[in-house]
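Listing 4. Sequential folding, example run.
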Amino acid sequence: MDEAVLRGNSAILKCHIPSFVADFISVASWVDDEENEIYATNENGHFQSDGKYLVLPSGELHIREVGPEDGYKSYQCRTKHRLTGETRLSATKGRLVITEPVGSVGPKISVGERLRDAGARLGATFTLFCPAQSFPVPSFRWYKFIEGTTRKQAVVLNDRVKQVSGTLIIKDAVVDDSGKYLCVVNNSVGGESVETVLTVTAPLSAKIDPPTQTVDFGRPAVFTCHYTGNPIKTISWMKDGKSIGHSDPVLRIESVKKEDKGMYQCFVRNDQESAEASAELKLGGRFDPPVIRQAFQEETMEPGPSVFLKCVAGGNPTPEISWELDGKKIANNDRYQVGQYVTVNGDVVSYLNITSVHANDGGLYKCIAKSKVGVAEHSAKLNVYGLPYIRQMEKKAIVAGETLIVTCPVAGYPIDSIVWERDNRALPINRKQKVFPNGTLIIENVERNSDQATYTCVAKNVEGYSARGSLEVQVMVPPKLAPLPTNADSPLYLGDYFQLSCAVVHGDAPFNITWYYNDEPANLVDGITILMHSKRSSSLNIESVRGEHAGKYTCMGANHAGYTLVSTNLTIKVPPRWILEPTDKAFAQGSDAKVECKADGFPKPQVTWKKAVGDSPGEYKDLKKNDNIRVEEGTLHIDNIQKTNEGYYLCEAINGIGSGLSAVIMISVQAPPEFTEKLRNQTARRGEPAVLQCEAKGEKPIGILWNMNNMRLDPKNDNRYTIREEILSTGVMSSLSIKRTERSDSAMFTCVATNAFGSDDANINMIIQEVPEMPYALKVLDKSGRSVQLSWAQPYDGNSPLIRYIIEFKRSRASWDEIDRVMVPGHTTEAQVQKLSPATTYNIRIVAENAIGSSQSSEAVTIITAEEAPSGKPQNIKVEPVNQTTLRVTWKPPARTEWNGEILGYYVGYKLSNTNSSFVFETVNFLTEEGKEHNLELSNLRVYTQYSVVIQAFNKIGAGPMSDEEKQFTAEGTPSQPPSDTACTTLTSQTIRVSWVSPPLESANGVIKTYKVVYAPSDEWYDETKRHYKKTASSDTVLHGLKKYTNYTMQVLATTAGGDGVRSAPIHCQTEPDVPEAPTDVKALVMGHAAILVSWRPPAQPNGIIQQYTVYSKVEGADGEAKSQKIPHYQMSFEATELEKNKPYEFWVTASTNIGEGQPSKSIVAMPSDQVPAKIASFDDTFTATFKEDAKMPCLAVGSPQPDITWKIKGIEFSGNDRMRILNDGSLLIKSVNRQDAGDYSCHAENSIAKDSITHKLIVLAPPQSPQVSLSATTTDSLTVKLKPHEGDTAPLHGYTLHYKPEFGEWETAEVSVDAQKFSIDSLLCGSRYQVYATGFNNIGAGEASDILNTRTKGYKPKLPEKSRFIEVSSNSVSLHFKAWKDGGCPMSHFVVENKKRDQIEWNQISNNVKPDNNYVVLDLEPATWYNLRITAHNSAGFTVAEYDFATLTVTGGTIAPLDDGQSSGNIHTRIRLPAWMPEWLDLNFMVPLIATVIVVAVGILVVCVALSRRRADDLRGGQKDVYYDVVYNQTMGPGATLDKRRPDLRDELGYIAPPNRKLPPVPGSNYNTCDRIKRGRGLRSNHSTWDPRRPNLYEELKPPPVPLHGNVYGHGHGTAECHYRHPGMEDEICPYATFHLLGFREEMDPTKAMNFQTFPHQNGHAPGPGHAGTMGPPGHPGHMHSRSGSQSMPRANRYARKNSQGGQSSIYTPAPEYDDPANCAEEDQYRRYTRVNSQGGSLYSGPGPEYDDPANCAPEEDQYGSQYGGPYGTPYDHYGSRGSMGRRSVGSARNPGNGSPEPPPPPPRNHDMSNSSFNDSKESNEISEAECDRDHGPRGNYGAVKRSPHQKDQRTTEEMRKLIERNEAGPKQLQQQSGAGFTAYDTMAV
């Protein structure tokens, strides 16, 4: 900020720092515009207060004596952040505005500046300002007020306190600097002043002294709070945390009580902080004041009995207890007995016994416990019934002025009143008297005259009885003494007489008068006599006053009432007298001299010393007080006495009495030789002569010797040296001459002088100076782009301080003649060379320079400066639009000199123009080709939007400056919103006005140039080719040339340079009707000799609703009006009668609408005749029929004889049937038209005269047939499909609906236009299976569904990591590095971690939700132990299970030996030991499974034979007519599909259904939940499985067998129900002939709602019977077949049997042709790929198609379908072991003899050893964690329409499971035979 200042004054520039950061920011320096830095301190850290510029401690820049030249400079402050060290220059520059004074100006100070407050911290440096300017330049003086006064004193300036112009600078602030300062400003014109209150804040601290003290009871205690710091606002004290209201530093407790003990705190506070100290007060000894522990209570009683009063008191020391009655002590007598004793715990028990109590014994009894540490008392009344009685009261003596308190001692009870009387007057009778109802009388300030009397107490009861007692009150008056005289004004001298008199002027006799001297009895002092003159007076006499009689004298007068003191002081004048008189002294030089001089007298004499002027006594002068001479209590001290202190001294003692005392002494100093200069430096240039001199003073004779470096220097040994001596008056001068100096003469020369009193020496440091040697060890400490930090070793400086170093530097290619130089102060050995260019090679050398000359140059070093961020901006930046969302940016590099290194690339930033958002940057690599333009395309931008683009080059250091913003619009896009408010208005029969409102500006995406109106007749709208377009620039237009009376559909769109925008929603208008066109054709047919039949076709354009036709007729060629006949609009023929034979008639026809009559048709001429040939009046026509509706084609014929009418259909003679028949009028009626009815229909009429024919064309409009859907491409999250319409579709296709669903999800749809060749389904799950099918739609409706396409997105289950990268073992934990897992292309979701000891069976789940990117530590393991670890990795494609063995380390970190148990890894099953005589291969683990397998195969062969023999005898009842559609419960049932709950067999079929919400427990022995078992269920195929512990492959997948079983399988209840092979793509299907219980229904369903269902066989290809053969009925329904809607387990029907996607509303019409053995691989592949499912429960019209045939001739499935379905679904896992598909048998469940692998067992019992299962191998599986089981839509293992429950409601208890299995295995034979395989043990399915 600019500062205005008068020329010649001082200016202060301030650095304005925002308040919110001011605490962290300080001013480091100021910079002028020549980049000179002005620092607050110099190089040594000292504050600089001289010079023109000064940076004040508070950061201001102080500029002295401002001149005109200062107005041209500007200044910036450089600030530093205290925490981060960051420095920053101020954003703005400040200037001085120099004002030339006009005339004289007095000092001026603004009102706000006159009173200022300042604060400083202790030890800091602070500034006090005096902001005044004037001309002439004023003088400034600073004063400080003395605290608490208005007096002020000048501020003393020294090293700590400095004044610069008017500014006062105080360093190292101390608390004493606080106070009020005054700056006085004066010049010749006037004066001003500024007051500043300075507060130096010092941290507060407090301390209590003593910190702990122990005080006895009753003794005083003092705590003192010592505090430091400033300012102190308040002091407060607290005891035990509670304020005690004391605010002084000293806390005094006069008498300590018990409650005073505790903690005391002192608090000192100011506005900023507080400090606290604490101390403890303890009670001394074991003193406890007395306490009444137990006491008697008030009591009322009858006279007679004895009374026992008891008091118990405690305390330490043990108290004494006394008793009082009405204030009078009780003593033992015959009726009153007092006794006491001490208990074992130290309490005192005292009692008072009153025998035979009287009424007179009543009164106030008191027990008093007293010890030396306190008193405690208790009182209570004893009331005895009786008459009033007042005990005798003793005479009461009281001192005048005190208060009389007396209580009337009344006995008797009850007492009604107690009054006091005096002279028969009831009291009170004045203000001083107070009487209380309890009998107490109080008289205040008792006086003898008014209050000394007899007082009577009167007590009465209610009966009027009274008692009286008298009290005599005597008032005593203490003595009063006359004051003693004082002699202060007339003091006594020694020997004077002295007398004091003391008299009693008032009081009661007798008196006793006593004298005291200094509080001691005066009669004991020598020389004092006391005389008694009368009873009231006494005198004290001293005959001869001596000095010891001075002091305080006291007279005391005493009587019975008290005593009084009077005192005075006696002063005696005594002249001085010597106590110690001084004498002459001699001291050795340099010692501390002490001369005593002491005198006595009164007043105490003052002792002074003086020194004689000159060498003789006589005239004396006062001693100047200095550092080594002082006088303390009369003693003269001279420290370090020197010869100059020698001389005569005078000691004087004076007290004003007499002339005083004096003594003169001589002090002599014995001096050894002395050199006045002990050390000096002397320089000489090398090679020149030099002389060294030293002068010794002292007592002569003095001898001088020379040493060089402490060695004796002898000129005889070196003729360069010569010594001379010269005697002076004060001593001796010795000179050492050197002819020609050398470097070795740089040494310490010492001259030693000696005399009789001692010796002294002086040193001369001889310095031989020469030019310095060259600097060496030049090296680079640090370098940047523009500077380099150098260091070097300081060379020999030639004994002359190095003035400076000169650093010379040049570019490597330049010569040393073209160098730059940097000057560096000579005291440093580091320097920075600045203003270099980055990334440049330099040579640097250094030269040293002192006062003698310059050294040689050092060796040069070569450095390359560091790269810096580029300093130049990219050039020639151009931004051009490429398209609507892309801009191309081109540019060239910055100038080569601004690269500052090698440019690596560019950051290209872009953002929306005119917004505050930040730039988004992209990186572009540098092109090495010289001069080539860089370019970048910025894509995904907004359409037609202006973007700002900046570019900055970067190298490896960083980025350079940004270029200026270049702005450019992206190319215009198409409007994203349609025009709004579209409306149409019909104008005429051929014109329609269309209007609209422009789309919103923000959606235009460009400049709207035109609008397009798209229009077409509504019935042609679907056909893009029939649409018309009209362009206009306005917001409305008129469409011309339209068809009359036609519905038009219109859309409006806006067009920019980018193209057409979004179309508006269609609107519809109809053109007005008009007169119709002429009928298109007319026939006139002879019907007879007087009749002609006229027939016609309607107009091509009726232009409205035809109201009627008009038939005109006239004789050909005749004139006149034609006859007309009106015909209804529905009639297309007219029979003209009454015509003349053989006369030609002309006919024509017109049509009429409500607008009018239209054009006439062509004229036709006919002539009536008897000959009537066969003719057809109908016209050739095209008829369009809608699917399933009736169609009628006319054939109206005439002729005589009556003609025969025949029809041909597609050239074939027609014979009637149920659907088609010829009507009486010759028309052909077709009922319920289907697609096959389309074609040509010709009608033939023939009689004997002629024949005629017409041909109609029938077009059938039907919903589209199923389109073709094929897979085009897949990614991890999308599928691309191709769509083709069916070749047989006749009606135009309007579009497609694409249906798709994930394996365990819901169906979703997408609309696809008819033109789209391909369509991508996005946002799909990675690595997941999907089903896709499509339907077409036209104006008739939605058509048939295509085949279902089964496919999957790319991506696989997680891949196993290397064990070494994944597992890191320690002694008690294992670290798992989950980043080592590969995700298979689909991101990981979570991991499940389980472990167990190697010898355990149960797995322990550690966590089921470990995040993938972290490391995980399994803790609490035992050292040196083998463990199994199981990891399940999950992603959206599935999961992978890995198992690992590892051993924890020993406690010391060692490894343990591997287990050598002869087993394969992971098998812990103990091998069965065999006898020694048996061969090794006879291992029971091997033999038992082998024998069992042989038995099972044998039984299987037997069952097959039985089944085949029964099948031959069975009746083939599977014809198509016998197909029965039974009800199958599904999620969505078709219309009419109901479940009959009343069926008697239904409840039996259902079996057991789990209750709602019931969780079925896991199977014993398995840690896998039901979800796991569901997924593994497809490997469990046996109906009568038994657990085989020796089976190695527990959860293996099945592979298709190499050879299928041939021959059709019929068996209804006893045939084989085998899954002979698996169709690829159907790995998870339910096995044929398996009966399942439907579990897991909703909770509200009762058990009757479940039912069994059966799957159907995969029939093989050589079936002798039709396609329905081999089906089996439900239990109790032999011979029937279940057609299961929604199940993939039904027989695969022909490829045209479609999934009904419309919920049963559309149907499948045509019977499908069967197809034969698809041995050709391509076709088989196609059939397999499309899984046909009826998912919505619609009915199938066609019967089951042909069977699936033998796919054995196809290529291996792995190759065919691995690519289609991805890894887990395409390729069975090699490490599971290859196995054939499993057969099922209804009886015995014999194994399939054709496969070589046994069937997998159910999970093992819980306690079974699973050693033979290769569980320790790392394997993939379809397990999922419990967390994922709950989350997913369904288990991964099942792929098809049967949906398994994702929840575990269908689990069963072990007992329930056992019962179900027994029901399936051991149930009635009928059920087993009919139901086929039944329910697999341990296999749970939900549908």
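-- end of first protein; second protein begins --
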Amino acid sequence: MQSTTLVKVACITSIMTGPRNSISDSGGGMYSEWASLSTLVQNGSEDSQSVLKKFHPVAGREVALSIVRQLATNLGITQAAEHSPLTTDREVQWCMEVICFGLSLPLAEHDTVRDCVNVYCEWLSALYSSPKISVPRPIVEDPNFYARKIISHFHNLFVPRKGEGADTINRQAVLCHRVLRTLQQVARGPATLERETWESLLLFLIGINDALLAPPAVREDAGEQLCERVLGVLLEVWLVACERNFPSPPLWRTLRESCLRWRHRLALVEQWNRVCLALTAKLLQVMYGPMFPELKISDEDAHLVPQTMSDEAVAQSWYRLLRTVGDPVDLCRPAVVSQTQAFLQYAIASQNVVDPCQHPCLQGLPQIFLKAIKGIAGQVDAFLGVSQACCWEECCITSVASASGGGGGVAGDKAGGKDQPQPSPTPPTQRRLAKSFSVTPSAVTKGIPKASLIGLTTSRISSNPPASTPNSGPSSTSSITSVTSLGQDIRPPLAPGRPKCNSILHLFGEWLFEAAFIGTDGWSQNLPQPSGASKRPSSVLVDGPSSLQETTSEIPPSLGIDRYESGRAEAMGALCRIFCAKKTGEEILPVYLARFYQAMYHGLKINETRECGETLASILLNSADLFRLDLDGVQVLVPAVISALEIVLPEKELKLKSNAVSRIELRRASIHLLISMLTLPLNLQNLPIKELPSLTAIINQEKNPVTFVQLKPRLMNLLINALQVESDPLNTHMLLGGLMLSVQDSAAAEEVEQVTQPDTITSDTTTNLLSSGCVPLRIHHCTIITCLIVASDSTSQVSISSDLRSLGDGSDIVTLQEENSAFGKYFDSAHALFVRATYLVCHRLISSWKTDLNISLAALELLAGLARTHIRETDALECKRAVKWLCDYITYQCWRPPPAHSKDLHSSIVAAFTCLTTWLSAHPQLLQDKDCLTTVLEVVELGVSGTKSIGKPGEPIKMKDEKELKPASMRVRDAADALLTIILEQVGYFPSACGAQSLSSLLDEVLLLRHCNSWTGGRVARQAAVERFRYFVAENATMLALLEEPLGNDQDPQPTVTVLIRGPFGRHAWTMQLRHLPRHKSSVRSMNTNPGRPLPLAEATPRPDYKPRFFPDNVDRIPHCRVDESIPSLDAVMNDNDTVKNEHHLLSQLLERQINLESKSSNDLARNADDKIEECTPPKICHEFQTARLFLSHFGFLNLDQNDNENSTTSGLTALDPSMPGFCTDLESLDHTSPRTCDTVHVFYVRAGQKSAEEILSNVLHETSVSPHFLEFLSSLGWPVSVSSHAGWTGHVSTSWRATIPVTVPQPAHSDHGGALYNGDTHILYWADVSSEVAFIVPTHLMGNMSSDSIDESNYNSDISGGQAWFERSVSESAGTRSYSVNQSGSQNSRTMSLDLDKQPPSLPGSGPSSTSSGDPIKPRRSTKHSLPMQTDTRILVVWLESLEDHLQFPIADLLSCTHTGLEHSNGVRPSDVQVIFLHSLSSGLMRVRLQGPVSRINLATPLVDGMVLSRRVLGTLVRQTALNMGRRRRLDNDSYHPPHVRRRLKVQDMVQKYRCNLSQPELLTFLFSSPQN
């Protein structure tokens, strides 16, 4: 049915329009061959004249008074109804002549006129099946005949009376309302009307409208009181007639010609908009069905179109009524509007009016023109499917304020109209609640509120308060609804089933193009274009000079063409929306494109004041997609658009002519245009841009054409300057993405071409810029930074220090104006852009963006992307400056006061640490710089401990053992830990010998055991291999697996131990030997295995015979004194004490026995002196060592000095029992927990029109089914790896992180595939850096639930059990003593180093409540009750579209089954949670990006931005970076997420809880001296 109806409408259009240029012909247009009834309408018919008119008015009055009063008494109004005494046709017709005369009486005879109205209204009940009893019998018998006479007589009531007061006019209005209401009821009711009756009714309604509305509007006249009502009834009854008795062509022509005479009435356009929108809403349902977006109109207007109207009648009525009011552009020409008989009569009769166009009522033409264009634009939006509920209000509601000011709109008018008294009496309940239009002579001086209008189309609702600007037209309402900084652009999407652009332009294009060209060169406001003349842009140029020579002195200054700027802006906005609604592959006629480009060229012109006018603002707001749609030749507009953007984007305080336009939304639309043009210079290079023809271009033909590459400096300066002054978060987000694209694209282009743009300035340029006549110099970073800050006439150098970037400094960089200098053209090389981007982003990150999480994340992502960008001239000093800035940013964020600390603040700090990791990994030479290394390590110390040893200036230096561990948060400490470990282990060494696929060693217990001498060959069971190792956990974080057997490739008999170290950051294998000599010396060995010894000397050594003396020889010669006798002799003592005597005796016996033994031995030795002496030989070499004990002892894990505590865990070493059930499984689970983040990106290819998952998956099976550019894109995402031999992330946990021996398996040839090789079965595309892994998979088949395949999923997800794990502390206890060693008793006050983990004692349940020691447990900050890898399962899809419209029907829900990674949770993934990157290839070779994702606090990641256009050379890089950043942002936003190294550490702690051996120190030593199980 849709197609049939659409064909009918198209046929109606072609038949009725005829030659397109005659539509606006006032001679009848499509009805030119039919007779017009306008003369009858203007002069009145004879049926409305009474015979009493031929008599004296007094006589006629007396007859009417007496007859009508008696007739009215029978109606039953004041008394009971009676049968009418009129029984014959002659009697009835005679009375009707009297009543006809009574309706024309002066309003002073109000009672008589009222009685006439009552009589006729009652008599019209004869048209119903049950007429009232007061109706005469002849009327009942022939109701249609008499109804036609009654309707014609009613014309006398509506004729305006001259000289009547306001009160009398109000009374007349009440009676007119009664008549109109009665006629409405007759038309809509069950009455049976003949065709002649319908035509009489319609002619009557046209006639009364012409009588009331054709004269120039005068304040407080009958036309002002009734215009809205009579027009509403006319159009409403007309629609009923279209349904019941379709009007004849003469009636349609008469209606059209009459409306042309009423165009000076605002109510006409409002009622026309109202009816047209109601018909459009009905027509959309007929043509496109219920799935098409509904046109929101009021409930009352929705009932204007009868529900029973046929589809054919709807289409016919809609098109005919649409063409009823003529060409809206004629409203811009007061001379045309006033060329009517009524205006000419008024001009002749009035002494104050020289020309009809000078009448005061024409001051409202700008507002009428705007309303008319709004109505047309509203219908355009309805066909595009973007209309909103405010549409009908904008077009159909009048307010009092609009009358007083000649402009204004809904918002301001409603407020202004409340205080004014309503001149008209209370209308009936059926009347619409709308105010009347009035014109005052002071309309010009009162001014027009410019921001009082709400946008007609889309959802353009301005949040700015209305303002008033004198002598200016009504405002253009082309702003877009303001959105929060955290959401995406909420412009309503276009309807997928919308008609083609050509179809809409066939209907509305001519009016919109004419409105868009008003005020341009060659357009005349004075006279209309001749009938039948061509309206192409070329005719504007040809006929322009003659038109310009016409005088415009007759036009009042208050109706100058600038007053119609708002309507022109609305028309340009509608045109932009039409052309931006182009579908993929849709063709637009060249004539339309040519006119559109010409209109855009004029609309984008900049005035002398560099003020953003309404037309320019409307163009920018509505053409965001202009350069993304493959419009033929649209590139000719690039210079004009750039010039317009240079007015809007670099200005912090933008000059706007209309305050109704939101500056934020205007800048956002301008940024959309900017990011869609950034790649054009490098893509089109030296292609010249042809200038559009114009009068000025014809004069200046000698000008050389501009090439695209010449526009690059302007685009880059525009981008940088816009970023400097931007304050809106979402706009800044988009600009950062565009800046990253520019740097990457320039670097990639220069790398491909191997040609870098010159960085040398001539001496003249240098002199002009730095005002110093120096020789040419090399532009390095200092010069560029200087020029960024210093004015062009300054010679000073700028030192960028930390003080200059003082924390909390809110000042921004001085806005650059390099486009005005010759130096600007050297700023577009990749190196220069790198320097400018780094400096600008770092500065604003410190000064302005630090408090906004989304901008901070986008800026940090940009800096990380800059670090990865390969630029040949990158200077180490520039990188050092960027690292210093990042460290300053972290320092400032950490030092903010406690109330400012929040989840968002800590997320920004974690992201900064990640960015710092990227910089140091990409530029390892930075750590060779002492200052840079000190700065980085200070920041790491700040992140781990919460303070710096060297604090702020003036603070004393804190030693590490004096500091309290109070990091900003656990997440910040974890990020600092990760950075420190990467600095120590990875910077400068990544990728390792294992490749980028693994940070860990690929050796495990099984592989090591195979290299031992004890291996007999064959398969080694993992359990058996594990039990050959000794397992210990040091400091509750690092697991040591010790193998005491030497490996088979080492024959040295040295003590050897092989250690597998499993820590938070991976698994590492080390073989250590205890050597007493250096390796180079110990390897030199003697060739003689038995060198022998020299013979001993047989001669006995002579022994001197001497008596040992204990005192000197002269001691006996010294004379004794009395003192010598003070010590008694031994004999004296023995004699005095028997005990001493006995002891002396025993000692004497022992001495005597020993003397005998010594003498015997001496004699034996002397006797055997001649025997041969036995030679000493070295012992046999020992091959058995307790190497585990030696290793633990030498490395300080065994401390034998602490004898007061028998617990072995005092030293921080815990032994594990590998023989316990489950140990081997948990160990394998630990090995399968990567120390890096892992993400999976699934790539799909969608051919045009595909909707089913099966069709989409089958596209990549063959190379011919996909674009060659798609295969090129896949190769740029990563490098292909084999799943069977890959040791990194493979996209699924069941095959990831497997240290398997590469097995050569014959793979089938996959030469003919469109990416299916990388479906994850045998190969994937892989990319990794030091902290992240990404797997790119191209699915080829749907899969069910993967629970049976992911055997390690439960182990991977359950990293802790029961909440019994040891927790970590990051704050000190309140007691003041800081005891941080594990299980310390409190008697010591030792302190761990910065990476040591603070654990709670295992005897946590037994700690007494009264204990106050520093070892008391504290409540941990990190909760471990959640599953650890909550946020690792981020679904990211990359979809290549042949047709952009297919993104609306992409079956995400159906394709989720083929995106399993083994990390799924019980609640599953909803389609709304999936992040999708849509890529659409344009005909120019560029790629358009569309992003789709869940709405959350955190924006979608950069560098890709929704709507960005980029080149293929950077497509893979930017898609990969965006996917990485998407995963990182989701992890940052998840409260329960743990970084990989924390997850591994908690897994180790969990294993300690399960498999620990509770050994005392002696038991531990005994365990070390024993051999492991064999």
